[in-house]
Amino acid sequence: MSTTLVTGGTVVNATGTAQADVLVDGETIAAVLAPGSRLLGTDLKATVDQVVDATGRYVIPGGIDAHTHMQMPFGGTEASDTFETGTRAAAWGGTTSIIDFAIQRYGERVEDGLAAWHEKAAGQCAVDYGFHQIVGGVDEFSLKAMDSLVDEGITSFKLFMAYPGVFYSDDAQILRAMQKSRETGLLTMMHAENGPAIDVLAEQLYNAGKTTPFFHGIARAWQLEEEATHRAIMLADLTGAPLYVVHVSAKQAVEQLAAARDRGQNVFGETCPQYLYLSLEDQLGATSEEWGDLEGAKWVCSTPLRSRADGHQDAMWRALRTNDLQTVSTDHCPFCMKGQKDMGAGDFRAIPNGIGSIEHRVDLLYQGVVTGEITLSRWVELISTTPARMFGLYGRKGVVQPGADADLVVYDPAGHTSIGLGKSHHMNMDYSAWEGYEIDGHVDWVMSRGSVLVDESGYVGSKTHGKFLKRDLTQYLV
Ligand SMILES: [Zn+2]
Question: What is the whole-number distance in angstroms between the Cα of residue 24 and the centre of ligand 1?
Answer without folding.
Answer: 34
